[in-house]
Amino acid sequence: MRRLFGVTVLACLLSPGIARAQSDSLSVQRQIQPLLDDMMVAANAHDTDRFLASYLHQPSLVFVYDGVVTNGFANVRALQLQAWNNGKSDVVYKNAGALEFTILGPDAAVVTEPLESHRTLPTGVTSTTAFAVTEIWQKRPEGWRVVQVHESTVRNAMHR
């Protein structure tokens, strides 16, 4: 009986902290989700500047694509312009699964997005690519910003 009482007291003491952590987690997710939604709209419009608006506009931004590391906002912007052929790309993006939010605190989060893209290759063939993007978000004085991104293409299981 004494043990049951101790467990009950401990649960009562921890419950407010757990509830607060869950509330903080939902709050962070609610703050970031509209930014992610706007990024998807911008990506499908091939609007590089709107897409990168939530990225950290500093040299410390880190972007990793299939193992290649690019540092700095200006370099990431140049790559994105190239990838979307200066806005003339026909690529269409869509979510390929549920987003995963890992809340590190009230001012930091990791978001993982399974995505899929469809585009026409120079040969005229339509290509579908599955990929995943993981972004580290940080709440800064100017608002939430992506400070690091990792994007990787899903390879055919036979290539592993």
Keyword list:
7 strands; Nuclear Transport Factor 2, Chain: A; seven-stranded mixed beta sheet; 3 helices; 160 residues; alpha+beta
Explain how this protein is built.
It is a single chain. This protein is of the alpha+beta class and 160 residues long. The chain has a single domain (2-159), classed as Nuclear Transport Factor 2, Chain: A, CATH 3.10.450.50. The chain is 37% helix and 36% strand. The chain has three helices and seven strands; from the N terminus they run ααββαβββββ. The N and C termini lie far apart (55 Å).
Amino-to-carboxy terminus distance: 55 Å
Structural class: alpha+beta
Q: How many helices?
A: 3
Low-confidence stretches: none
What's the architecture in CATH terms? Roll
Number of domains: 1
What is the residue-averaged pLDDT? 88
Oligomeric organization of the protein chains: single chain
What's the number of extended β-strand segments?
A: 7
Computed CA radius of gyration, to the nearest angstrom: 20 Å
Shape: globular
Name of the top-level CATH class: Alpha Beta
Task: Give the amount of beta strand, in percent.
Answer: 35-45%
SSE ordering: HHEEHEEEEE
**CATH fold assignment:** Nuclear Transport Factor 2, Chain: A
Major sheet description:
7 strands, mixed
- How much helicity do the residues have? 25-40%
Summarize the structure.
By secondary structure, the chain is an alpha+beta fold. It has helices spanning 2-45, 48-51, 73-83, and strands spanning 62-65, 68-71, 92-95, 100-105, 108-120, 126-140, 143-153.
